[in-house]
Amino acid sequence: xxxxxxxxxxxxxxxxxxxxxxxxxxxxxxxxxxxxxxxxxxxxxxxxxxxxxxxxxxxxxxxxxxxxxxxxxxxxxxxxxxxxxxxxxxxxxxxxxxxxxxxxxxxxxxxxxxxxxxxxxxxxxxxxxxxxxxxxxxxxxxxxxxxxxxxxxxxxxxxxxxxxxxxxxxxxxxxxxxxxxxxxxxxxxxxxxxxxxxxxxxxxxxxxxxxxxxxxxxxxxxxxxxxxxxxxxxxxxxxxxxxxxxxxxxxxxxxxxxxxxxxxxxxxxxxxxxxxxxxxxxxxxxxxxxxxxxxxxxxxxxxxxxxxxxxxxxxxxxxxxxxxxxxxxxxxxxxxxxxxxxxxxxxxxxxxxxxxxxxxxxxxxxxxxxxxxxx
Length: 375
What we know:
Radius of gyration: 24 Å
CATH architecture of the domain at 121-255: 2-Layer Sandwich
Structural class: alpha+beta
Helix content: 25-40%
Shape: elongated
Number of strands: 15
Distance between the termini: 9 Å
């Protein structure tokens, strides 16, 4: 993974050759040398659904909305449902939940039902995403070998993440006006702007965002007058996959707790963070694993899996870890949003020092490889 400061040019390269001599034992297999994996969401959901169907004893309800969530009632002579969430579906069906898991996104209706506050702030940034095709004729060592690139610009980081067969995923965090502008461009101009984001100065990029059209020609001219080491930037983008361009607002939110009576929150329902570290999905998966472990332990020991006591181990396992992650990512965003002044020099010194310390890079990469996360 190549990471660099878009203002000063200071960079760090996360690769095994520069760190292997400091690692004991050195990574041997391909799996040990892999920092992280990229996979499309459709692959994950397809595999999970297939596995769930293999396990059996699971009811799937499709093409149906939850129209209401309310508490049940205490009916004499029957099961006391006064603490149970009752879901009313758009089909008219009702479901009583011993445990209702809110995996329903940042604007979680389950969290609202439980009365759990979510606090944080908006970044005044939008994330622009797209699927790209890359030039595969490059002969530079890092091109075409599953290398991720991330450049920190004052308006937000731009990242190119490798996918199979010469494709890549773009995640560009930028100002809302810039995101809206990018979505209006023709295919050639948009392609030129993405290439420029990894090659031209922040001043050049700011000017390009003022042009209504003609970016392809302007970028060609400016690159001719800009010293660029082609070995340090990603292979050129040749096209953007039609229909893949989208944007979304970036914000940081953290729920006051992840569990209430017969309610548990996971993923974006519990926390949302800036995508600069690529940790959103990974944090959500870790939530699910910890919640499953807590439920399993409750069932094995005869507890009610929807009780606050049974859910406490899940909250204890994930809340502090996620809070620390949100804090680090938030501070990184603020650190690299500064475009001038002494802070630029200080952060560049720090990035350069990490790049020279192979044992530090090895520590980061080994930790990432074990968890399967992007740094």
